[in-house]
Fold this sequence. Notes:
The protein has helices at 2-15, 74-82, 103-117, 119-122, 136-146, 182-189, 195-200, 228-239, 265-275, and strands at residues 23-24, 43-47, 56-60, 86-91, 129-134, 166-170, 214-219, 244-249. The chain is α/β, with parallel strands linked by helices. It is built from nine helices and eight strands. Helix content is 32%, strand content 15%. Mean pLDDT is 92; it is low at 1-16. The radius of gyration is 18 Å and the shape is globular. The protein has a single domain (29-275), classed as Rossmann fold (3-Layer(aba) Sandwich), CATH 3.40.50.
Amino acid sequence: MQSLILALLLISIASLPAAEKPIVLWPDGAPGALGTGAKDIPTLTPYFPAKASGAAMLLIPGGSYSGIYEGQAEPFAVWLNEQGLTVFVLRYRLGSAGYRYPAQLQDAVEAMLQIRGNAAKWKIDPKRIGVMGFSAGGHLVSTLINRPGDGLIVGSNRTVRPRPDLAILCYPVISMITKPHATSRNMLTGDKPDEALLRQTSSELQVKPGLPPCFLWHTMEDKLVPVEHAQLYAAALHQHGIPHELHLYQHGDHGTGLIGTRHPWFADLLFWLKARGFVN
Length: 280
């Protein structure tokens, strides 16, 4: 019996989608690189599903702009693979390594340019590429859809759209002014940011017509990033006529709904993605 269980376990493990070798985003060095160590080299790691829907997702983990929380990387890439999506996990430059805005956005924009620019190679639809982020990664998602131009550098591929086709923000950091998350703000903007930079990086103030559809969720009991962040962004989306859904769940602290718990947001998100042709 034990040998049978072991065999079944090995088959199960073998059937899981495996990550490809990480792609170095900037082979000749990232713009404004402060060194040549791992912390100075952002990467994009592809995960390919067994049965692809043709849609793709750029996945941006959180970590307060001071680290990359790996629990929001591969586990969610595998879950999205199970839904038929091709996934690319972004590991971006961090404030803890001395990088301030817009370095993180430069990495996200370059990731989008490479994903869409290589759509034929990776067998994905260039008009079905979304982005999904958690916490500070959710802030980077909002910045990517709000102000992708801030992340374009000289030499960027200007023939490819950097803005995703939809966005998913999970308990996101949004505002650097209203109830800000101190660590995320300090890591992104420095210790003494001026008012203009705080407004530029407060995503609720940067929404404009023409943004892609958004799915947001948060919990009312979140003690790390107040629920007002998601509410502020949803209000701005509503004001500018951007299609969106905001899901507020009563219980759960920051990070509720990680893989393994099957929180209701999983089903709500899949329903939304099906309506947009991203999953079958």
